[in-house]
Write a structure and sequence with these properties.
This protein is α+β, with helices and mostly antiparallel strands. The protein is built from 9 helices and 12 strands. Strand 9 and strand 10 form a beta hairpin. The protein is globular, with a radius of gyration of 20 Å. Pfam families: SLFN_AlbA_2 (PF04326).
Length: 233
């Protein structure tokens, strides 16, 4: 995330006077806040999300700064390492109205590993889901649904090894990417090279040293998927 992209996120929450489904705000002016619930909920959310430290929600999200940039980064990183699976965060910091702001980008947990949860609390005590602009502990049923969807997600990412990227409708993919851009204009995903972007979206995958469509990619964007005798057609 660039500093300009972070500024835009700050302007967004200040304009709406509210956090968003993909944006959590913490003050952190007096110390490192607890963030396990937000790490879990945002990583279980499609597309992940961000936590912005240094804004005060009670004051209309005005900048109040953070207690110590280096120590806060370390604390946030250690918290991310206690999640299952561990999360690898990306940090961006800037000075805004004389206050230091830190943003942590939380990647979406791979579908086959969801739900992401706080290890010390266990699966049923440490799994959260994002609801509007807040975090809610998952019910047993929601955890079951995440786990039951793992095998289907793995099947969807299998390579259609006889197909080529040219067998996909590029215009349809471009429209899909445009929708992602409209929903998450600051996403680092959108600055990736085209082939890397399609891999990150699980539209393409590597098979024997070359890129081929995934089953999901072929079903969604294939120009004529029936020719490959996909097992689910």
């Amino acid at each position: 995330m660039t500093k300009d992209e972070l500024l835009n996120l700050i302007y967004e929450v200040q304009s709406f006077k509210s956090e968003q489904d993909n944006i959590e705000v913490k003050s952190a002016a007096k110390g490192a806040p607890k963030i396990y619930d937000s790490l879990s909920s945002l990583s279980n959310r499609p597309g992940g999300g961000v936590i912005i430290f240094g804004l005060n929600e009670e004051r209309g999200f005005e900048p109040v700064g953070i207690y110590n940039l280096s120590d806060l980064r370390q604390n946030v990183g250690e918290a991310a390492a206690q999640m299952v699976p561990p999360l690898r965060l990306t940090f961006t910091s800037l000075k805004y109205k004389e206050a230091i702001i830190l943003c942590a980008e939380i990647p979406e947990c791979p579908i086959e590993l969801k739900p992401c949860y706080y290890k010390p609390a266990g699966l049923h005590g440490g799994s959260y889901i994002r609801v509007s602009d807040g975090d809610r502990k998952m019910t047993d049923y929601e955890i079951y649904m995440f786990k039951s969807g793992r095998s289907q997600a793995t099947d969807d990412m299998q390579p259609v090894f006889r197909a080529k990227p040219e067998d996909l409708d590029e215009k349809a993919i471009e429209k899909y990417v445009l929708k992602i851009q409209e929903k998450r204009p600051g996403s680092r995903l959108l600055v990736l090279p085209w082939e890397q972007l399609l891999k990150s979206l699980n539209i393409l995958t590597e098979y024997e040293g070359k890129l081929v469509p995934t089953l999901a990619g072929m079903l969604m964007f294939g120009t004529f998927p029936q020719q490959f005798s996909l097992h689910c057609l």
